[in-house]
Amino acid sequence: MTTYGYSLLSEQAPPDQLVADAARAEEAGFDFATVSDHYYPWLTAQGHSPYAWSVLGAVAQATQQLRLMSFVTCPIRRYHPAVVAQKAATMGVLSGGRFTLGLGAGENLNERVVGAWPAVAHRHQMFEESLEIIRSLLDGDSISFNGDYYDVGGAELFDLPEATVPVAVAVSGPHSCALAGEYGEAMVATHPDPDLVRMFTEAGGEGGRRYCQVPVSYGPDEQECRRVARDQFRWAALGWKALSELPDPPAFETATQYVREEDVAAIIPCGPDLDQHVAAVAKFRDAGFTDIALVQVGGDRQREFLPWAAETLLPALRNLDD
C-alpha cells in the first residue's frame, strides 16, 4: 500500500507556519510529513530556512498520528554524526515512535558554513563512516570510534525510543544503494528510477520503504502556477552535480537565470488539472516507491493546496491502489 506525505519545505516558510501546516496536513489525511534540513534556501526568493530539528520537535507535539521524517539530514560537516544520532533518538521519543531519520551526503549550499566543502570522494567516505556511527548508537550500543574522518570517544545514548529509529539513506547509484541496504531500513531518491529500487532491494533492502518527493504547483490559474514554480523552483532543473556543488542562493540564481517557465512546467505539474498531478505521482508509484511526499510550491499557497488535497488529490491517488 502506497502512503502519501506532505513536505514541510523549510526553504519557503517560517517555522511557525511549518508547524501549523503540519497539523493541517494531518487533518487533511496525509500519512506522514517530511522536513527539509537546510541552512540556506535554494533561491533568495524562497526567503526562509529555519532549524529543521526545532520544527520537528514542535510538529511532534502538534500532531498525533502523522509520521515524521528528516528529508534529508547531512551528517558529515554541519552536524557530527554522534549528535545526529542523539537528535534522532530524542525525536523518536518525542514523537512516540513516529520518526524516521533520513540521511544524505549533502550540498555545499548548507554545509560550507562550517568549513570547506570536501571533494566528492572524501564526502562519500565521510558519509559511510557517519552511517556506521549513527547506526551503532541508534541500536543502543556504547561505542568508541576512530576513523579517517571522525573520532567518537565512549558515546552512548541514554534516551532511546522503545523501537529503534528507522534510518532512510538517500541513493543515486550502486554504492549508495549498497549503503542503504547495509545501514538503513529505507531508501530515499529524487527520480522515478526502478533500477534504484532494484539495487536497494538486492543490497539487503528487501521489504524496506522507498521514499521520494514530488513537487506540484496547484492552483486555479495555470499561468500563475507556472510563474510561481519558475520563481521558486527553477533550481530543480539543474542536475545533481550542480545542486551539490553551488555555494549559495546568488550562485543558484545565476545558474538558473535562463531557465524558462516551460522548462520548469515540464518537470513540475502546474495548475488545476488533477490528472496532471496524479500522473506525476504515478511515475514514482509505478517505479516501486512506497512513500511519496508532495510539496506544494510556494509558502503562501499551502492553504489552498491542503483542502484540495484532502477533497480531491488524496482520494484520486489512493484509487491508484485499487
TrEMBL record:
Keywords: Oxidoreductase
InterPro entries: F420-G6PD/mer, F420_G6P_DH-rel, Luciferase-like_dom, Luciferase-like_sf
Pfam family, one: Bac_luciferase
GO function terms (MF aspect): oxidoreductase activity, acting on paired donors, with incorporation or reduction of molecular oxygen
Enzyme class, spelled out: oxidoreductase
Coiled-coil regions listed in the entry: none
SUPFAM superfamilies attached to this UniProt entry: Bacterial luciferase-like
Domain Luciferase-like: 10-290
EC number: 1.-.-.-
Protein name: TIGR03557 family F420-dependent LLM class oxidoreductase
